[in-house]
Amino acid sequence: MVATNMAATNMAATSMEVSNTTTMEVQQGQETEEDVDRVSQQIRDTRQESVNSTRNALRALQEAEESSGRTMTQLGEQSEQLGRIERSLDSAQIHADNAQEKAGELKTVNRSMFAIHIKNPFNSTKKREKELEEAKRKAAEELAQREAIRHEEYQSKQRIDMAMGNGAYGRAQGNTNNYSNNGRGGPGERSAYAFENTAEDDAQENEIDQNLDAMGGYLARLKTSAMTMNQEVNRQNERMTHITSKTDNLHGSVTHNTALLQKIAKKG
Question: T-SNARE coiled-coil homology domain location, by residue (predicted)?
């Protein structure tokens, strides 16, 4: 009788242990499913944030490239304007030199108006030869100056066209890097560590990859534009220094001619 009661007690205890173990396993299973759902939702939220972030970055890079394009266009227009200014200064300098020669002749005529002149044919020949050589020299200088200005404008246009994608190589060379999947492996590798994706999840990951590739292209082109703008600005600064020098020379010539003419007028 005692043995029968002990056996019943042991069976009841065993049944309770089994029941408790089953309950704990069910609770652990529920907790595991809740953890999986929570992590899965966190992944979806992070993925959506990444999509929004890449969209915003892409939009900002597009605006930056548009601004860069406008700046490059302005630099091109400024280069053409510098060329026009330089040509005008060269033309004005030519007229100033001619005016100086005429003022010298006028001074000579005014001083010797009542003097008796006997022309020396040898001196006349040498003078004509000298004048011819001087005319040739000036013509060569003018041609060299015009050619230098054209060359500067051509080089400036080439630099800007290449940076803006209008040159021989175009925009295709702007991005040679593939930024998508960096450090994340391919689709097969990702699936080994990821939860089962829905069609929406795959579409978001593809959009992130495409946005990263597009961002890489924008960054490469912006780098090229920045380097070109720096080179163009430095070169235009050199041209403006040259223009300043020409302006000073022209101012000196005009001042000298004015003073000479005023002196002749007083004597007259």
Answer: 44-106, 202-264
